[in-house]
Prior knowledge:
Blueprint lengths: L1 H7 L26 H6 L4 H7 L3 H10 L17 E4 L7 E4 L6 E3 L13 H12 L4 H9 L7 H10 L4 H7 L1
Antiparallel strand pairs: 1-2, 2-3
Amino acid sequence: MQLQYVLFASRVSSYMAGRPTSPAGIVNPAAVMTLAMIQSERWRLLDLGAEINQEHVVIQWCARRRLLRNCFTCGRCNLPMHLTNYAQNVDGKRWKCRACNITRSIRYQSFFSRSHLSLRQITVFLYCWCSDLPLKVCIHGSLGHHGNYSHRTCRSLFSEMHVTRKQCSRSC
Length: 172
């Protein structure tokens, strides 16, 4: 998979000699799943947790399922933006235009854009919540002992994202 991804990534001449350029996409476009493929998936919590055990892996997992954009085009110059490392945010990545120097979060215009939790925490919480597990179990399973989210906060979070348990349970 890594080799395919390296072959896929569009490369432009680097500004510094010998420095590798950043990819213009998160995963190979052929790895992005169709809606039917996504809807046919069935997950168990243990399998999901093992699948998305590292932040860079959960970013790829979300991009394959169209939860994050796999590629991004600059709104100013219409050139492809590149995925770069950025330690100051929770995801450790961002989109950057080399021509305009404009940056965007990898969460920009996505389901995750309003949250400060990690993608892994949100994904596990959402899985638990959609499985009709009690709120305390959802919080403990995704945030650990440090979770201090109330039922009201969670309801508010998902109402902003226009998600209800009824909608989730149909897709789980």
